Amino acid sequence: MIAAPATQPVTLEEAKLHLRVEHEVEDTLISGLIAAAVAEIDGRHGYLRRALVTQTWELTLSRFPAARRIVLPMPPLQSVESVKYYDGANNEQTFDADNYEVVGTDEQGFVALNIVSSWPATYDREKAVTVRFVAGYGAAASVPANIRQAILLRVGDLYINRGDMPSDPDANLAVKRLLAPSRRVVLA
Question: From what superkingdom does this record's organism come (predicted)?
């Protein structure tokens, strides 16, 4: 990740309302629980395999693909900032945006070559191609309600079951059911 989200999908105030906490004594604890719950589901390795609040990422490749498009992980894709590569002389270049179009949906985003363009040759090295992109639903309020509610349920479970206490299996099942429609399944 290049730039982390500026905010969490759920505010401290929303979590406190959900938990029915009216004091400020545990604000630090609750903020930490929000961060932990979000970390479980957000990002490339999170349960959903998608970006929640706007964040910037880089995808690196050892060369341009044989296909005419580069599939980007972590939908929803907002934009592509740049496509950079190391040319045959091992000098970093920026691939002109006029050579490709950016296509993004809620389920997948990619950089697709224009009909008259082709990928340039790259130097034989690791990380020869770097695509910097912005992903996420936008602001915290734009994150789908089912995901926000799942975060609140997970925060509640973590708040009640501290230390060595096992999590509530019913709460975890409810979280998974709420997240199921938004989970991105990656086929190998």
Answer: Bacteria
Q: pTM for this structure?
A: 0.88
pLDDT tens sequence across 155-174? 999 998 887 666 666 667 88
Treating both helix axes as pointing N-terminal to C-terminal, what angle do 27-41 and 145-160 enclose, rounded to 10 degrees? 130
Judged on CB neighbours under 10 Å (0-12, 13-18, 19+), 132 is middle
In contact, 18 and 156? CB cutoff 8 Å: yes
Burial class from Cβ neighbours inside 10 Å (0-12, 13-18, 19+) for residue 13 reads exposed
Look up tokens 């979590």; give the residue.
15
CA distances (Å), origin 30, targets 21, 23, 150? 10, 11, 15
Max CA separation in the chain (angstroms): 63
Order of all β-strands in the sheet with 77-86: 55-61, 129-135, 77-86, 92-94
